[in-house]
Design goal:
The complex is a heterodimer. By secondary structure, chain A is an all-alpha fold. Chain A contains 12 helices and no strands. The model of chain A has no long low-confidence stretch (mean pLDDT 84). Chain B is an all-alpha fold. Chain B has 12 helices and 2 strands. In chain B, helix 4 packs antiparallel against helix 9, helix 5 crosses helix 7 and helix 8 runs antiparallel to helix 9. The chains are: A mainly alpha, B mainly alpha.
């Protein structure tokens, strides 16, 4: 008599997953904390969003601490406290982002009307009604400056990255440090530098080109560092294959390395533009901030979106502040779409090998 | 019979095209050095006469008087330029920013490195990157219109309950646009950079040590305390210093939020103060040619200060990154 083989279904256990009971407990604690916070706000002098958030965090930390203390002793309690603090940290990081984006999207459209993108401010002051004036001059000015800065900084940034990854010259460590240090230069210093070197005492006035030079200084480090990260990820097999076929180093870099890294390098340029699109301080010293349209990149005051926001902010009247929000709204749309574009085109990790 | 071909010459001398290529790349590579050199050279050159006449008192003096008549002649009171008060303001606001933003950023980095599920982490890391790209004028506008009320509320609480601490005293109850609120805005501005540096350092924690800690029965906090923090400590300090450098050089946001008054204000809740960068912006518009020179000198001081802080920070971060691999 042979024993019958029986099919036994074994469900895989996942001991790291919380059990239903644990999930219920944590939901219970969460609800308890919300109720406690609401009760305190109801019956004491505290009020407002800030008080709610602070009280909720305090209650959550203490109830979780006490619960795990009763359940597992001081070691578990400390662990739960640390977890609570880590969650608090990320919550405090996220809250301003939500608040900022929320405010921008809520207030940004107030000053927008049909002609907002087709007229400039030459006939109107920032305090005048919201159905006149516009941002055309600023958008075009920004576009001109960003384009020039892009044309100047992308080659320099990529050459710097090539020096660090392909030549690995004697100065590599120094250059890497200096590029890092350059990314920390206050933007105002870049503006002051262009002003002191090229504008003051030279007879030349403000122009888009000067502004673009200041922006270039700020953009180079971003492009260089991102490109370096991208080029580092290109497998050295590719370079060696190129060299083994008899190509010179120059041909290898131009025909193999750069094409392989293309999408990453485009990302680097996009992130660089995102970095400078909203820079205000350097433009205050270099562009003059015109209210009328000016499309001559080398002569004359020129407006830009950050400068538009700045002028509106200085004006300070309610209509001007509404205009400032509209300008910021536009900037944020640009920055957000640049970021999304950078993700779509490919993060450095997705470079084909 | 075929002739024997001449022996191939083996050489490691680069071809002509390669020499040009290397020359151009090296030139490009050293641009950052050239730019940094030119910046210090020109700011020093334009500000030199003021720096020489004021001497060391340029950075210690609390007086900034520019007395030039409208026709360009020297006014009745002698001009004197000293950025001491604004230097103090720069350091005060940056330290407030670091004290508030630093802990938040480190905790957030710990969350991102050790607590967050992978997809959440990816999303939040891009949020942090995005936050770092917010224009500073946006922080200024938001700080002035949204954060100000909350900041004043907190400032009043601090003043009422901790008023016995000297820095929380105010001679007159004006809490609007104080260095404290400027520091709060700066804190939010430096959180992304400190978070991303700290997260990258924590992410490099050797996996074998983490697993060893877990295998010994450590809770997650015990692992962080015993492995991650000792490993990443100096890198996090470096990241915090990078944040400090950013906060010191911040211009537009401080100018917008803070009530710029030329005095060294250590009563951080009182609505007056400033920092070097905002002072330069404030004076630049109507400055005489002599005062412009003084502003260039001030810019030079700011440049040196932030460069020193940044270089030190990068050095610390780079040293941590190499260790333990």
């Amino acid at each position: 008599m042979t024993p019958q083989l029986q099919e036994i279904e074994v469900k895989p256990k996942q001991p790291w997953k919380p059990t239903q009971k644990e999930i219920n407990t944590s939901i219970g604690i969460f609800v308890l904390n919300v109720l406690l916070t609401l009760a305190v706000i109801q019956f004491t002098g505290f009020s407002g969003k800030l008080a709610f958030v602070v009280l909720f965090i305090l209650f959550s930390l203490s109830t979780n601490f006490l619960f795990s203390l009763s359940k597992g002793g001081s070691v578990v309690a400390k662990n739960s406290l640390a977890t609570g603090f880590a969650f608090t940290g990320i919550a405090l990081l996220i809250m301003p982002v939500i608040s900022i984006l929320g405010t921008v999207f809520a207030k940004g459209t107030e000053a927008m009307y049909i002609g907002f993108f087709t007229s400039d401010m030459s006939q109107d002051s920032f305090a005048s009604d919201l159905d006149v004036g516009g941002i055309k001059h600023a958008v075009l000015g920004s576009l001109i400056m960003v384009t020039i800065a892009l044309l100047l900084s992308v080659p320099i940034g990529i050459l710097t990255a090539l020096y660090l990854t392909e030549l690995k010259g004697r100065g590599s460590t120094l250059i890497r440090f200096l590029v890092q240090a350059m990314s920390g230069i206050p933007s105002i210093v870049a503006g002051l530098f262009i002003y002191s070197a090229l504008i003051t005492g030279s007879g030349r006035g403000f122009s888009a080109f000067m502004g673009a030079l200041a922006l270039t200084i700020l953009m180079i480090p971003t492009v260089a560092r991102t490109s370096e990260e991208v080029l580092k990820l290109i497998p050295s097999d590719l370079r060696e294959a190129g060299l083994a076929l008899g190509a010179t180093q120059w041909r290898t870099v131009a025909m193999v390395v750069i094409p392989a890294a293309k999408s990453g390098l485009i990302t680097a340029a996009i992130l660089g533009v995102a970095r400078i699109a909203g820079e205000t301080a350097p433009l205050l010293f270099t562009t003059g901030g015109a209210d009328a349209l000016n499309i001559n990149p080398v002569d004359g005051n020129i407006g830009s979106v950050p400068f538009y926001v700045w002028k509106a902010l200085i004006d300070g009247s309610p209509n001007a502040i509404a205009r400032a929000w509209a300008g910021i709204f536009l900037l944020m749309i640009i920055v957000l779409s640049l970021f999304i574009a950078a993700r779509k085109i490919g993060s450095p990790k997705k470079v084909r090998s | 019979m075929r002739p024997i071909p001449e022996a191939r010459v083996l050489t490691n001398k680069p071809r002509f095209s390669d020499r040009i290529f290397r020359g151009i790349v090296t030139l490009g590579g050293f641009t950052s050095l050239v730019i940094l050199g030119l910046i210090s050279l020109f700011l020093l050159y334009r500000g030199f006469s003021v720096l020489r006449s004021e001497g060391f008192s340029f950075i210690t003096d609390y007086e900034w008087v520019s007395s030039i008549n409208s026709d360009g002649t020297e006014g009745e009171v002698a001009s004197t330029y000293g950025v001491g008060a604004m230097l103090a303001g720069t350091i005060v606001t940056a330290i407030i920013a670091l004290l508030i933003g630093g802990p938040v950023a480190v905790l957030a980095a710990l969350y991102l490195a050790f607590y967050a599920p992978i997809r959440t982490r990816k999303f939040l890391v891009s949020v942090v990157d995005l936050m770092a790209a917010f224009p500073s004028i946006l922080f200024g506008l938001w700080g002035l219109n949204v954060l100000m009320d909350q900041g004043i509320y907190v400032a009043e609480l601090l003043n009422r309950y901790l008023g016995w601490i000297p820095i929380f005293q105010v001679p007159v109850p004006v809490f609007l646009r104080s260095p404290f609120i400027a520091g709060l805005v700066l804190a939010i501005m430096i959180i992304p950079i400190v978070t991303s540096v700290a997260r990258e350092i924590f992410a490099q924690t050797p996996l074998d040590r983490i697993q060893a800690a877990y295998a010994l029965g450590a809770t997650r906090w015990a692992m962080i305390k015993a492995v991650a923090i000792p490993y990443g400590y100096s890198g996090v300090v470096g990241g915090a210093m990078l944040g400090l450098g950013r906060a010191m050089g911040e211009t537009v946001a401080v100018f917008t939020v803070l009530n710029i008054v030329y005095r060294a204000n250590f009563d951080i809740l009182l609505g007056a103060g400033g920092n070097l960068a905002s002072h330069i912006i404030l004076k630049f518009g109507e400055a005489s040619s002599e005062e412009i020179k003084a502003l260039m000198a001030a810019g030079f001081v700011l440049f040196l200060l932030t460069l020193a802080v940044n270089l030190l920070a990068d050095f610390i971060v780079a040293r941590t990154g190499k260790r333990g691999k």
